[in-house]
Amino acid sequence: MMFKSRIYKYIVITGLILSVSACKLPDVAKRTENTNTPAAYSGATQDTVNSAKLKWKDFFKDPYLTRLIDTALVNNQELNITLQEIQISQNEIRIRKGEYLPFAGLRAGAGVDKVGRFTRNGALEENINIVPGKENPEPLQDYSFGAYANWEADIWGKLHNAKRAAIQRYLSTVEGKNFVITNLVGEIANSYYELLALDTQLAIVQQNIDIQTNALEIVRLQKQSARVTELAVRRFEAQVLNTRSLQYNIQQQIVETENRINFLVGRYPQHVERSNDDFNMLVPNTVATGIPSQLLENRPDVKQAELKLAAAKLDVKSAKAQFYPSLGISAGIGYQALDPTHLIKPESLLYTLAGDLAAPLINRNAIKASYKNANAQQVQAVYDYERTLLNAYIEVANQISNISNLQQTYNLKSQQVNALNESVDISNTLFRSARADYMEVLLTQRDALESKFELIETKLKQMNATVNIYRALGGGWN
């Protein structure tokens, strides 16, 4: 006993020494999750009011859009896949929790055993009678039933840390689901506004087709009176044909945009109900950006990266505990007999109780490799967290600048459209009085149509920028 106790003592000491020598953390892994962020966004006031706190039903007022989002939150396949990942993570927690609880079970068995007479066991059976005065039955029967349990004492927290890491990963999958919702809401809103913009562009094209067709008839009448040549007629015809071709291109874009929305809401192609209001009259929501530190609370992807980092740190602790000795305890109690009639007699009672202490000595390289892998994954998680937070800040900063510049662009484009609309009227008047060339009329009409398209595209960019900054701030998932 003295010799065995010394062996166990040396094993424990050796394991501790080896673990200390193997557990040096890289500097980057010692960084804290509380990464410093700038006090305020460039070009924005330092105010804690944040539009990300608004629920998406309060942020988007269009009833057609909110119905689409509601449908998508039920039917979208990517979101439903993510929900199953959450279920998988929940089951992983149960698995990890079960590892540090005692394993207990019931066992029953029956069998026969025939040994050769000229063997050690056969000779013993020949000389020892189980029942005095009676020969041993041949073959020997064996019946048993009882309960057993075994348990690894989690002295160093290896199993508890593994369970806590599984909890952190479960929470990260919840944040991953929230991030999917945020992106889904933003993508549907952007596609919806694109659909409204295409509707407006199609209406403008159809109006221009009517205007240009009337102009073509006027040119034909002027040709009959020899005021213009056949060249002018052909140029006006080409202009009308070009504008007509535009409407089919826009109609195709409408179909594709509708089907993109249908895919997001998880349904087969069909007409997408939408508002008939003038797209140019839409007013983008005023978005309060708050302060950068609120990204840590509002952005699901930032919280997901933070939880993954916490899980990686717990994985390192769990891997580090592999270097330490482990204590296992096993026990059992039951009955065993050669005859079923003797099975529940006191003489058939048996029980066992054992404990073992083991420390790694030979396979240290495998344990060190596992520990180094856990460390490397922790470093990856640190960099991923820092990258995610930096990306979140830059996304918001870009959209703040974008919203400001788009407002200036829209104002100038509106003035350009007004000036070109007046130019179209003036050129038509001058052309009728033969004071302007037909090319001036054509060029003016073309420029006016392009400017209207550009104005709509600028309005679409404004609406998209509003959606994108709401998403970048972390809104849409709550």
TrEMBL record:
Stated family: Belongs to the outer membrane factor (OMF) (TC 1.B.17) family.
PANTHER family, per the entry: OUTER MEMBRANE CATION EFFLUX PROTEIN, OUTER MEMBRANE PROTEIN-RELATED
UniProt-listed Gene3D superfamilies: Outer membrane efflux proteins (OEP) (1.20.1600.10)
Leader sequence segment: 1-24
Coiled-coil region(s): 403-466
Keywords on record: Coiled coil, Lipoprotein, Membrane, Palmitate, Signal, Transmembrane, Transmembrane beta strand
Name assigned to this protein: TolC family protein
A Pfam family this chain is assigned to: OEP
Subcellular location: Cell membrane
Main location, first listed in the record: membrane
Membrane protein topology class: Lipid-anchor
